[in-house]
Amino acid sequence: PESRPPEPLMPVRLIAPTPSAYAFPLLIKHLLLTPLATVPEQTITYQGRVRYTYRTLKDRIGRLANVLAGLGVEAGQTVAVMDWDSHRYLEAFFAVPMMGAILQTVNVRFSPEQILYTLNHARADVLIVNSEFFAALGEIAGRLETVKTVVTIVEDGKAVASPLAAVGEYEALLAGASADYAFPDFDENAQATTFYTTGTTGHPKGVHFSHRQLVLHTLGCAAALGGATTQGRVHREDVYMPLTPMFHVHAWGFPYLATMMGLKQVYPGRYQPELICRLVAEEKVSFSHCVPTILHMVMGHPLAKTTDFAGWKILIGGSALPEAMATAAQKRGIDLFTGYGMSETCPVLTIAHLDSAALAGSAESQSAIRAKTGRPLPLVDLRVVDPQMRDMLHDGKATGEVVVRAPWLTQAYVNAPEASEALWAGGYLHTADIGHIDAAGYLKVTDRIKDVIKTGGEWTSSLELENLIGKHEAVHEVAVIGVPDEKWGERPLALVLLKPEHADTITERALRNWAAHAIEAAGVSRYGVLLQVRFVKTLVKTSVGKMNKRLMRADPDALCL
User: Which domains does the chain have, with CATH numbers?
Assistant: First the structure.
């Protein structure tokens, strides 16, 4: 559907406030009110090594704001962070936007070239960087356009030389700053965060969110998770540990939720299966979220065999939840269920909670529901439509594109007006996912419109991989598709049509090894190296000569030599 201007709002009678009334703006700072009033001594820990209270969190937020203000950070400027999941990141989640500045969460899994692009495109002014990422920073240091100030994070007192001159180390700077900072009120529509997401082609796209959007997303998730009967219910006595990176869609927004609810919070740093198992056991973790690959990694570790996971609620997203994984998790006492969203939606749109009747069924019957995409959160207007934006029947069969409206969806990409208009064509945000809705209101995503491949919960561009593989002298044509993989969700498969003169000069393994080196050298997604290569006798195309990847995905073996 074509984009069109929004309909003008109907004239209505507005409430005239009393002059002294406080017009309560939806600002991130207000998420701190309840925990500081009710559970100020609740615990926040980093790997079990650093441990402090919500009262200390408040002080450290103030100290960080004073440090940044002393470095010249003003409202509207951007502070970028490169760190693993830590208490420091949580402090930045609050301090930076509460100042009126913008927090850029840098994807540390990007290639150095992609990191350079995102920092320059977001026009970051200050960079807070963990020393573990100094090597990547060193490759791009001379080409940063706007970053003028660097703050380093050095753990355990390790002396590491920064590739850029730094004004100081994070903990030392906080120790010398005052905890008192008067966080101002301002328009709730002010930008709070920016991060970048990869797509089908080209550079990563910037996504941004306002204070209002983040607060409403937090409230929507709280209503959905707290409103569950028993299964998947999150409450004040839960212990929260994220297993989705804090650089990606604010760890799905759950650090804000956990803070607002005053939960005990456990931050694991880099995801290491042994450490995760230990933290679950020692800190009594009861609520997490992750992509299937992370859970597969944890459950496959030897320590998992002796770890008691009973009562651990895990929201799965990023990739489809295999029913077999849901069943296996139930046998270990894990309450595993699906959530759905995308970078542009803040991200949570749906959650697959089970009603009491479904909970009375077998593990297998429950898994069929747990693996669905879920029911919409409060305030989410979610539809499955045909190309003319007409609703499909809610019969669990009729498929169409998933489109959505909610008060927390990004309103535009960063400096990308054409892509933004395409995203919002027809006045609904287009997810580019295909699915159906059943009579009970459960959405099931069945396919994607774009031919991107999701490996380990992250996008890998098929077009980028095709471009690289096509540079080999033996390759005539290539189509890269995603094929199911038990560990990674999907992995890329290159279907290669060789030039006749090279049919006997190269093997699938040799081409695969060549492609893996090319992928690493080009800085494409790190998951691209999981590429598989098969030689084919033909490639399926549409009537206009385009690659028909849908049919090739259906039966790739039929094409192979």
Answer: 28-437 (3.40.50.12780), 452-559 (3.30.300.30)
